[in-house]
Amino acid sequence: MKVAVITGAAQGIGRRTAEVLVAAGYALALLDVRSCEATLAAVRAAGADATEFVGDISDEGVVIRAARAVTKRWGRVDALVNNAGISFITPAEAMEVSDFRRVLEVNLVASFLLAKQFGVMMLKQRSGSIVNVASIAGLMGVSDRSAYNASKHGLIGLTRTLAAEWGGRGVRCNAVCPGWVKT
User: Fold this and answer.
1) pTM, whole model, 2 decimals?
2) Which tens digit of pLDDT belongs to each residue from 35-67?
């Protein structure tokens, strides 16, 4: 059985990713800052072995506890989808530094924390795949989204670095850059 970890799994891209991976036969660990109850019910109805972890993934302790729980339950992880993200739509000159930092913590630092924790498991297995959900905003500038743009540019850079470091050891790391998604 293959195991996937998905962040931001309560709705939108995260929920749809869960549905697709269940159809491919994966067991799922669903992470979100709020309950993934609807996603969990849908994937279990489709036959998935699934669980949820509710918590702030920018908190290293939350990520460590989730990684330990996945290891205890399944003993492996084959895929990590770093999908969770937030944004503040505010002109740069009006952006609060605390809000800028919060976006970086959720969109970039949390992806690093998750890749680090689950990547260690993948490196031991010499196999696995990390998919970072960046954005077209990580490839260009978009007005009134300075923190979001910076975080997604950084996520693309992190993706390239992890691909270079871990690719030769069996762990793939890629980014997808969707356009606007209304969720």
Assistant:
1) 0.95
2) 999 999 999 999 999 999 999 999 999 999 999
| Catalytic site includes residue 26 | no
Q: What is the pLDDT of residues 108-161, one digit of tens each?
A: 999 999 999 999 999 999 999 999 999 888 888 889 999 999 999 999 999 999
Residue of 137, 148, 149, 150 with catalytic role: 148
- Give DSSP secondary structure letters for the chain: -EEEEEESTTSHHHHHHHHHHHHTTEEEEEEESS--HHHHHHHHHTT--EEEEES-TTSHHHHHHHHHHHHHHHS---EEEE-------B-GGG--HHHHHHHHIIIIIHHHHHHHHHHHHHHHHT-EEEEEE--GGGTS--TTBHHHHHHHHHHHHHHHHHHHHHGGGTEEEEEE-------
